[in-house]
């Protein structure tokens, strides 16, 4: 299996978003480089022209993309002491580099959690070469998102988070960031896939619904924006299949859902059902009258947890949570994590051939 790397610093991580007031120039019929509609094309066919340049989008959005420098205290794994190797508690400062993007003129910046995790110092350099000290306002390791505030910032350019659900496979996308320390690098590609899950990235990352792109993403891109042709952020560049031309970005809609909680400050405390789940086997669906897709199968219930108190049982299939349809086990984990600790939720389940509705008081997701 090809190893996947988070794209921070010089070996690992990247993503962003943008407000716009006009669309990029599109090539016209007189442009020799423009894509043309074939003369024999059916009358009802609709062909979108390929942009003759992406320069307008870049000029409007690049000023809101930033470099993020962090310092972290780390302990060496082991050292030679006398004639043997021992673990020695000795601290040193380690500097790393990532990307981010401004979402508010007063200096609110979105980046990846792994870019700033355990940082003792954070400094941010803007496109115009200004430097700011930064602090973490809120973070969510499970979604790999962090919100920063630049000290003393005002009247900064910013980007808007768009609707990532509108992104289609094959749409043009642009990635802006600082790969390998190369400031404000722009790459272009397409959305190669959406809804990518179970990507083995390691760390605390739990919620995955990645946009896949062939726009070049490299170490240092982490936390930077993935933009559509309107210059709106539709993803945060986060990981790459290193050297394989495949990158992954967190959808903007996921970020928008947790942004209010991040703004409130601190580590995001996620709620929890207290169950183990898996996909519903195809052979089971006709037996209990389920459609071909959707739902999450309960395979185990944590003793003393919220689900046990709500009488959920192994073999139950969860179809919806608070009216939101559960497409698979990953979707259920995301929905459950955002309900809120102590909040009461409604579950629509299938138990055998019987449809039931249960209420459950959400617990706190254990560390």
Task: Please describe what this structure looks like.
The structure is a single chain. With 367 residues, this protein is mainly beta. The chain folds into two domains: 1-27 and 54-75 and 87-268, Thrombin, subunit H (Beta Barrel); 271-364, Roll (Pdz3 Domain). The chain is built from six helices and 24 strands. The radius of gyration is 23 Å and the shape is globular. The two termini are 29 Å apart.
What structural keywords apply?
367 residues; Thrombin, subunit H; Pdz3 Domain; six-stranded antiparallel barrel; 11% helix; disordered N terminus
Helix-strand blueprint:
Blueprint: E1 4-6, H1 55-61, E2 65-74, E3 79-81, E4 84-86, E5 92-104, E6 108-111, H2 113-116, E7 119-125, E8 131-140, E9 145-150, E10 172-177, E11 185-196, E12 210-213, E13 225-227, E14 233-241, E15 246-251, H3 252-264, E16 266-267, E17 271-272, E18 275-278, H4 285-288, E19 296-301, H5 306-309, E20 317-321, E21 324-325, H6 329-337, E22 344-351, E23 354-361, E24 363-364
Parallel strand pairs: 8-16
Antiparallel strand pairs: 1-14, 2-5, 2-7, 3-4, 5-6, 6-9, 7-8, 8-9, 10-11, 10-13, 11-12, 12-15, 13-14, 14-15, 17-24, 18-19, 19-20, 20-21, 20-22, 22-23
**Over all CA atoms, what is the radius of gyration?**
23 Å
- Number of DSSP helical runs: 6
Strand arrangement within the widest β-sheet reads: 10-11-12-15-14-13
- Total discrete domains: 2
> How many beta strands in the DSSP annotation?
24
Share of helical residues: 10-25%
